[in-house]
Amino acid sequence: MSSPSGKRRKITHALKKPHEDAEIADLAPEDQQVLLEMLCSLLEPLGTYRAQYIQPSDGKRKKRRQKRTTKKVETTDQWTNAHVDRPPPSPPVPEPPDTSDHVLVGFNVLNRHLEALAAFTTPADPKPQTSEVQTDSQQAPKAPAPVAAIFYPTRDVSTLLTHHLPFLCHLASFNQPNHPAIRLIPLSTPRASEMLSKALHLPRVSFVGILDDSSTPTNGLIEYCREKAIPVKLPWLDGLKRGQYEAVKVKRIETFERQSKKQKLKAGAEKKPKSEKNTKKIKS
User: Fold this and answer.
1) DSSP character for 207?
2) Each residue of 85-101: pLDDT tens digit?
3) Kind plus residue range of the DSSP H or E element containing 168
4) Spatial CA neighbour of 32 closest among 195, 197, 212, 160
5) DSSP 82-96
6) Which among 167, 133, 175, 138 has a CA at the least distance from the CA of 150?
7) What letters, b where the CB count within 10 A reaches 16 and e where it falls short, cover 150-179?
8) Which one, of 20, 27, 212, lies nearest residue 102 by Cα?
């Protein structure tokens, strides 16, 4: 590798990973578009319910201001409020669609669910069942619902938020042995975050998880994910399970750095042959 003019070659060494990076699904753009459309059609009923019956938050400051104004009105005009016609009670809010119980929206919600699923352990020696009724504290803990797939748009999400997801999904898949492994699907489709936000009627949507339940009305979304996407693979965890020693690997990095004027003059003097130097001394 030839060095550029005015730059000096520099070689440094750094430790290299003894294992390969995590392997996640890398789908074709056509498959990503199909998955995005199926996901948006699944989330639209939940979005219409939010738009009709859930009032968007205006912030805590506005609520505090409203409380102060209502208190002042009650104290000053307490005798007039008794004669004012009150508005009719609002109609009861219907129950949310079935999709809401099988969808995880948001980074924090999804992260907490995966952590609970990865940390859940079944008791090793369950006690024999007796005729006595067990209390809530004596009953075995209930496992979190298994996760089928996780979607996130790569163009609007930083890698700092997604770097730990393959490891977390891999560990969570261990605690759902009766279900297939979790599919982690990045969406590089343009306007993916905008389409999800429009379907859910939210300002911004970055992470969406689908639970693996037989009663989930997924419209074939989970089956299509498992057909097209591979499970998350972590080679270094597989090496730990085998008890195999991983040798240290050193990476050789070749870079170039700028030379100062003194270094350039010194390098030029070293390149000149000795005969030229001797002739200059004789002439002088």
Assistant:
1) -
2) 555 667 788 888 888 88
3) helix 165-174
4) 195
5) TTSPPPPPPPPPPPP
6) 167
7) bbbbeebbeeeebeebbbbbbbbbebbeee
8) 212
